[in-house]
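TASK: fixed-backbone design
INPUT:
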């Protein structure tokens, strides 16, 4: 990407967002395909993988958000034409993500059992839930490294290559599920364990391919020399973006874990409905994630080249597209809900409850599409703390608090819980819009830019 392409940001963002969308769609399917395929093996195990994936999705999102700092800094240095810092940023990111991945793996094995008991995972799926999480969680570092390499390739605009890696990874997972879940030739049916092993194998293949693409497509050097002496200032910049963003996602997903605890009160039928509704909701907002990632890269590039007005316009244009597409997809999901849920199950209770949830989802997606775009773009302009604080307050106050009131206290069940989550997304989205409109971030960006120029000029 060059400055002329960045100025024509509508075109470049669309071109960048399409392969990101395909990549995210396929990455999502790597997890969700396990639930879909295990449902044909034994429908009760859908809840097992759903509960386990709630923890793994938390892990993946935290790693993904921390890798965002890599994307932002590399994009900014590309915009500023400061190539000397790019290799330093990447090598430091590898150290950071690897360390965090190892800590997460230790935490999974130490805390998973008490967390599942606290969540009140039903006894008939408890063992399978633990098995899936332990197998997939043992290879968290593979996911962390994959995301670091992918973040760097996206910064250079190689979205199609990252997408192809996701296609390959998804194909390996589907093939592995067919063989390992149901058994084949000398391999006995492994059920949930087979789904977990297939997921791990697909991610290992994905990482190998990502490393190959990285070596072919970029000039970034991997060397210990960039870590001696250790670049603490670069680490500080990475953590300045990654820690608040990671804390935000961690808090949000912990709130979702509490919400899943509420759902578990209602038994396996409601749990299964919740899992299926969450899968469908992913399709409603996944393009918002894609276009927000593309916009974040462009905004970071524009900030690096000191084009703040263009960066501001880019954010509002992205927001309009995000809301429009999310609501359009949710409307289609509602109209054809019986047919779509029928892909997963013929249970009439799930079909009826699922349609009610998708109706509430229509309102939830208004707020979520705003949040996805605003959080990414606020991070790009280094206003990282406010979205984190806002999420911590709103997710727990409205998502958890009102979800409990409506769902449990008032007896509205899963519909009430979904209303609480919709309140969280809409209130938070409205406040983030107000935050960005104040343009206070422009002062921070100019101050940061002056400081970087001062350092480049030897501190004078």
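OUTPUT:
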């Amino acid at each position: 990407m060059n400055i002329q392409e960045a100025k024509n940001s509508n075109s470049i963002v669309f071109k960048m967002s399409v392969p990101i969308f395909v990549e995210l769609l396929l990455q999502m399917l790597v997890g969700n395909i396990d639930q879909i395929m295990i449902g044909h093996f034994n429908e009760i195990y859908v809840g097992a993988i759903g509960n386990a994936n709630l923890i793994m999705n938390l892990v993946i999102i935290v790693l993904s958000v921390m890798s965002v700092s890599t994307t932002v800094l590399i994009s900014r240095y590309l915009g500023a034409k400061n190539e000397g810092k790019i290799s330093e940023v990447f090598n430091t990111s590898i150290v950071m993500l690897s360390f965090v991945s190892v800590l997460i793996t230790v935490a999974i094995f130490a805390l998973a059992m008490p967390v599942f008991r606290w969540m009140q995972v039903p006894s008939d799926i408890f063992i399978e839930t633990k098995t899936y999480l332990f197998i997939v969680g043992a290879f968290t570092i593979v996911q962390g490294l994959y995301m670091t390499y992918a973040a760097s390739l996206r910064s250079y605009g190689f979205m199609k290559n990252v997408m192809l890696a996701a296609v390959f990874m998804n194909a390996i997972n589907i093939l592995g599920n067919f063989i390992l879940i149901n058994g084949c030739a000398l391999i006995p049916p492994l059920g949930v364990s087979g789904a977990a092993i297939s997921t791990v194998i697909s991610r290992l293949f994905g990482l190998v391919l990502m490393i190959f693409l990285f070596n072919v497509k970029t000039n970034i050097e991997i060397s210990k020399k960039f870590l001696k002496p250790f670049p603490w200032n670069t680490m500080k910049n990475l953590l300045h973006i990654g820690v608040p963003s990671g804390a935000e996602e961690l808090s949000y997903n912990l709130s979702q874990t509490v919400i899943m605890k509420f759902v578990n009160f209602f038994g396996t039928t409601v749990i299964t409905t919740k899992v299926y509704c969450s899968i469908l909701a992913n399709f409603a907002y996944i393009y918002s994630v894609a276009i927000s990632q593309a916009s974040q890269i462009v905004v970071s590039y524009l900030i690096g080249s000191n084009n703040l007005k263009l960066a501001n316009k880019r954010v509002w244009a992205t927001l309009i597209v995000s809301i429009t597409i999310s609501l359009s997809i949710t409307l289609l999901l509602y109209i054809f809900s019986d047919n779509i849920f029928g892909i997963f199950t013929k249970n009439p209770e799930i079909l009826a409850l699922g349609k009610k949830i998708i109706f509430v989802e229509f309102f939830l997606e208004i707020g979520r599409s705003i949040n996805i775009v605003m959080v990414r773009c606020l991070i790009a302009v280094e206003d990282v703390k406010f979205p984190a604080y806002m999420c911590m307050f709103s997710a727990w106050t409205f998502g958890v608090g009102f979800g409990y009131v409506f769902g449990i206290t008032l007896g509205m069940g899963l519909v009430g819980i979904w209303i609480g989550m919709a309140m969280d997304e809409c209130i938070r989205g409205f406040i983030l819009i107000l935050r960005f409109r104040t343009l206070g971030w422009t002062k921070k960006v100019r101050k940061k830019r002056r400081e970087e120029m001062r350092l480049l000029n030897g501190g004078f």
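COMMENT: The chain is about 85% helix and 0% strand.
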